């Protein structure tokens, strides 16, 4: 199959991501109204912990499969990645089910337990789907992942309301989005296998050497994402307690987590529609290039991400009143949207740096800045969320910690854009 251009792949993925984020945005609005801020806060607590189990099989492995598929013609990378995802996903799912009561206790809210249980199958389903996505990106086939992702999000959106039975407790209402997510993931994986049935490689013998190579490529990015996911889970558990220490009643503190993580941050992540598409299409394209062509494409990817981040910041700041008063019907959110809007630029720059480093197999350079940024986030959240700033303090902690890690990553990635940079072949270190 002739490889599609990076621009065309990015456009397809951006359109699909746009539709997915639009459905996700509507889903958050609907959930915020149906579940209530308290139940939404409980779900966000459970979901932040659930992502810890999903991240090991959805972070680095699909990127590694994409990169190796782009550099070789056979389907051996898919076979090896699928086997790794199956074994790891099944083991993590069973472990998660067994540890869910303990995790609910560590989160400080036993009402998260039903949500943790119903979303456990997503660990296996998401891991397998992510490997197939990576294979498609490496081959230059953006449409199957696009349709599968749309199917998953549409199923979640359509299933949430029918599953919400009147009379449910807060814990029961908080479990509804997790159940819908599991069913949506199953539908998406089924569609993906159907779309790829004619282009999948035949049965290949297990290649332990290739599995080891995939692991070495994926571990740095997996470690980075695990740190980021763990920080979100820790902050989600820490934030209501620190808000309570500032004098906020416990139920109001839990609702505040729903406001920040369930309403404000999903909007902040919306510009990631474009930067994520650029990254997914750019990583295998960078892996195929060397020298001046590599630097030229790196410059184009970075400039595109920078533009998306700046436009996203301006749009969210300008529309903050509309989002707060009309969309969410929470006037207090206006100030939170404006305070958090600069995060869109920081996330875009971070995505650009991660794309450049991942395309060259240098993912390990993101580990230390991510670790430092996470430690800083926890320290600042502990101090500032308990101050009179409350939620604004939590947002300030996000801004400062993210700025530190992004600047560090850019210091490693930007030399690729300079004319004096040595034209090196892609590395698998």
Assign the structural class, choosing from mainly alpha, mainly beta, alpha/beta, alpha+beta, or little secondary structure: mainly alpha
Cα end-to-end separation: 29 Å
Radius of gyration from CA coordinates: 21 Å
Residue runs with pLDDT of under 50 for 5 or more positions? 422-429
- How much of the sequence is in beta strands? under 5%
Number of strands: 0
Average pLDDT: 83
Task: Write the topology of this structure.
Layout: H1 6-35, H2 37-58, H3 60-71, H4 76-107, H5 113-118, H6 122-139, H7 143-163, H8 170-195, H9 208-245, H10 250-268, H11 272-287, H12 291-318, H13 320-327, H14 333-340, H15 343-359, H16 367-384, H17 391-413
Task: Please give a structural write-up.
With 429 residues, this protein is an all-alpha fold. It has one domain. It is 80% helix and 0% strand. The protein is built from 17 helices and no strands. The longest helix has 38 residues. It is globular and about 60 Å long.
């Amino acid at each position: 199959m002739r490889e599609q251009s990076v621009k065309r792949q990015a456009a397809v993925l951006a359109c699909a991501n746009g539709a997915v984020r639009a459905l996700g945005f509507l889903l958050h609005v609907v959930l915020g109204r149906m579940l209530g801020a308290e139940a939404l806060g409980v779900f966000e607590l459970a979901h932040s912990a659930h992502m810890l189990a999903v991240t090991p099989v959805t972070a680095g492995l699909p990127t590694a499969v994409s990169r190796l598929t782009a550099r070789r013609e056979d389907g051996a990378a898919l076979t090896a990645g699928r086997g790794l995802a199956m074994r790891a996903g099944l083991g993590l799912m069973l472990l998660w089910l067994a540890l869910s009561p303990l995790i609910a206790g560590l989160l400080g809210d036993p009402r998260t337990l039903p949500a943790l249980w119903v979303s456990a199958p997503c660990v296996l389903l998401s891991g397998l789907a992510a490997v197939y996505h990576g294979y498609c990106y490496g081959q230059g086939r953006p449409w199957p992942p696009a349709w599968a992702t749309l199917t998953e999000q549409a199923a979640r959106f359509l299933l949430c309301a029918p599953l919400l039975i009147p009379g449910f407790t807060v814990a029961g209402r908080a479990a509804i989005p997790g159940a819908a997510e599991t069913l949506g993931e199953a539908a998406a994986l089924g569609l993906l296998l159907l779309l790829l049935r004619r282009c999948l490689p035949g049965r290949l013998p297990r290649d332990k050497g290739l599995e080891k190579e995939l692991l070495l490529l994926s571990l740095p990015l997996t470690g980075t994402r695990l740190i980021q996911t763990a920080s979100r889970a820790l902050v989600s558990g820490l934030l209501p307690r620190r808000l309570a220490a500032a004098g906020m009643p416990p139920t109001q503190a839990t609702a505040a987590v729903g406001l920040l993580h369930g309403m404000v941050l999903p909007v902040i992540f919306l510009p990631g529609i474009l930067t994520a598409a650029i990254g997914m299409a750019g990583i295998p394209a960078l892996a195929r290039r060397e020298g001046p062509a590599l630097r030229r494409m790196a410059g184009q990817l970075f400039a595109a991400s920078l533009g998306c981040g700046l436009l996203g910041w301006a749009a969210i700041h300008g529309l903050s009143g509309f989002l707060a008063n009309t969309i969410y019907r929470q006037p207090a959110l206006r100030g939170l949207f404006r305070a958090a809007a600069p995060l869109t630029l920081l996330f875009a720059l971070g995505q650009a740096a991660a794309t450049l480093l991942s395309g060259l197999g240098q993912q390990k350079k993101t580990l230390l800045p991510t670790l430092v940024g996470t430690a800083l986030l926890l320290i600042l959240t502990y101090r500032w969320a308990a101050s009179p700033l409350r939620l604004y303090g939590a947002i300030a902690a996000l801004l400062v910690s993210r700025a530190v890690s992004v600047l560090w990553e850019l210091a490693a990635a930007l030399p690729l854009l300079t004319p004096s940079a040595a034209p090196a072949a892609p590395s698998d270190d």
